[in-house]
Amino acid sequence: MTAIIGFIDNKNKKIIMGGDSLSSDNYKKFSRKDEKVFVKDNYIYGFCNDYKILNLVKYHFIAPEWKYKSFKKYDNTTFINKIFIPSLADFLQDNDIEIENDRMGHEELCLIGFNGSLYKIYDDMEVEELVMDWNTCGSGGMYLLGYFEGAYIENNTIDIEKLIKNAIYTTAERIPSVGGNVDIKELSYE
After folding, report:
1. CA distance 177 to 153
2. Contact at 8 Å (CB) between 181 and 6?
3. Which of 4, 43, 131, 184 lies at a C-alpha separation of 20 to 30 Å from 145?
4. CB atoms within 10 A of CB 98
């Protein structure tokens, strides 16, 4: 259904995220205007698989803000697991979205970046943080990861936005469920 990639640019203190615009199922595919990657409050999101959840989060979810003094005692990973994820899970359940607890339904939901960290969230609310400064999600995610990683390691001075676009367009040539326009957003952090 998609290809989303996020990159933590520690040098310029920003998180850059890109995604395709294709929506597809077993019978059809088309580009949508509603972007899968967006910035809201102090977070950057990249959604795959479910436009209902994307739109609920984009237009209705009020994420907890890390800047509050009571949350400053947590590092980013503790905050995302202890504060953000329970808030997101409650919000989704309040809007009739079932949280998958069955490991057979373990699918990627989105990438979330904030405060210089990047996480992949699964539909059972598992949180994944890689040791690398990048991650992907969606049906084209593994191909996208391989292309991006190979190109970045070969030349880590390359323009990241250009690399993200090239990686997504190349993935679209190989993965039928990836395509359309490429949208790139960024979120600065301190």
Report:
1. 27
2. no
3. 43
4. 9
Q: Phi/psi of residue 89, each to 5°?
A: -60, -45
Domains of the chain: 4-23+34-188 (3.60.20.10)
Helices H, strands E: what count in the chain? Answer: 5, 11
Q: How many residues does the chain have?
A: 190
pLDDT per 10-residue tile (average), the chain, 190 residues? 94 96 86 93 92 95 77 80 95 90 72 96 94 95 93 87 96 93 95
**Tokens 């998609």 belong to residue:** 2
Sign of CA dihedral 187, 111, 140, 9: positive
Say which amino acid occupies 141: G
Distances in whole angstroms, Cα of residue 134 to Cα of each of 8, 113, 141: 6, 10, 11
Q: Is residue 96 packed enough to be buried (19+ CB in 10 Å), middle (13-18) or exposed (0-12)?
A: exposed
Sheet holding 43-47, edge to edge: 37-40, 43-47, 108-114, 117-122, 127-128
- What's at 48, amino acid-wise? C
